[in-house]
Amino acid sequence: MRLQAVTIFAVVRLVLFDIDGTLIRTGGAGVKAFEQTFAEVFKLPDATKTLHFAGRTDMSLVREAFALHSVEPIAANFDRFFSAYPGYLEHFLKMLPGRVLPGIEDLLEQLASLADRPLVGLLTGNIRRGAELKLRHFGLWDRFETGAFADDNEDRNCIAAKAKERGELLVKRPLKGQEIVVIGDTPHDITCARSIGARALAVATGVHSREELAKARPDWAVNQLTELTAADILNHS
């Protein structure tokens, strides 16, 4: 008798969330804060007009703007930008209408209530201070136990590797890729999930449609996270 091969997936021990377009919408606070920082600190009022923010890291966006406007990409200039940026971000978070995206609070509650719950963390292109300001504004920051940020590296794949490393420190053992799920709203999130061997859940609550995200071949592609439960994510094969 011929036996069929059965794929057995490891138990998920780490769930990593992107922020903008996945957990929250800020009403454009991040983009406005970038604009204001460049205008006030570098006297460049049009610095962000050609930048595409979705799925990018803060560091790479600043570097691109520096290159476009002939600002020397030295540490002192990055420091000038990121010293001013959080203050403008905090201001615009208060001024602009934003929201937690559908299904997020319920999903986080479900994950936290599991008897054998996974670690829940962040994998984001925001600098850590920016991530904290955004998520504290919406009451979500304390829901995450670990994370990796644009301060860790300019490259999103390297940020993913750092998030995996920090998860491993907390569980006190190496994690296989199949023990990690990355949830995000752009093809960049799918790519960085693949870079660490993780499963990718793509959600069309950002600028990309479900059909566009599906072309990047995630493990799941949904319109919003209300379509899934924590059990669906952890038991998907």
Structure report:
By secondary structure, the chain is α/β, with parallel strands linked by helices. The protein folds into two domains: 14-26 and 99-235, Rossmann fold; 29-95. 43% of the residues lie in helices and 12% in strands. It has nine helices and eight strands. The strands form two sheets. The protein has a six-stranded parallel β-sheet, sandwiched between helices. A two-stranded antiparallel ribbon has the order 2-3. α5 links the parallel β4 (119-123) and β5. α1 (29-41) packs across α3 and α3 (75-95) runs parallel beside α5. It is globular and about 50 Å long. 42% of the residues are buried.
Q: Any key phrases for this structure?
A:
single chain; 237 residues; alpha/beta; Rossmann fold; 2 domains; six-stranded parallel sheet; 9 helices; 8 strands
